[in-house]
Amino acid sequence: MQVIGQTIDDAAGEAFDKTGKLLGLPYPAGPHLDKLASTGNPTRFPFPVGAMPGYDFSFSGLKTAVMYFLRQQSAKNPDFIQENLPDLCASIQYTIIQTLLRQLQRAAADLGLTQIALAGGVAANSGLRAALQELALEKGWAVFIPEFQYCTDNAAMVAMTAHFQFEAGDFAPQLVSPDPRLKLG
């Protein structure tokens, strides 16, 4: 396995959660945002799709744009978010999906990829699943998407790993430091 692209800030699931927090959705916001997005207009509020070189992606511009947009609109109408919640959710979800799929298409074209797998907690997002399946039909890709119950959040995976390490008596020293960019084998 080779990493060819990655987030330079938050992962897609974190972008769902952080923009959902701006909308007043409960944590984790991703599932709530996904459900509300299903009844909204995804192009009503055009938010910026992050433009990163290569295959990396970023959602910091989206979060900032959503924050300032909501602040501006709420100053004019304090009920703006509630009155437009499904369209806001759909527009945010659409932007996150377009960001991911744009980079995926670039990587697939450049590297000749024809088999694509979706994984992690964000793989539970119905909009992403549908958009990826639609794109796969168009491009002739074989797509592998886990069943919903196997779309596990990273936090749950880390907790389960810690559980097994605890059971095995495998403890780290107290002075160990986290390394979020730890290279795999």
Structure notes:
This protein has one domain (12-157): ATPase, nucleotide binding domain (Nucleotidyltransferase, domain 5, 2-Layer Sandwich), CATH 3.30.420. Helices cover 52% and strands 3% of the residues. The protein has helices at 12-22, 29-37, 60-76, 80-111, 126-139, 154-167, and strands at residues 115-117, 142-144. A two-stranded parallel sheet has the order 1-2. Helix 1 (12-22) crosses helix 2 (29-37), helix 1 (12-22) runs parallel beside helix 3 (60-76) and helix 2 packs across helix 4. It is globular. The mean pLDDT is 91.
In short:
The protein has six helices and two strands; from the N terminus they run H-H-H-H-E-H-E-H. With 185 residues, the chain is mainly α.
Which structural traits does this protein have?
two-stranded parallel ribbon; mainly alpha; single chain; Nucleotidyltransferase, domain 5; 185 residues
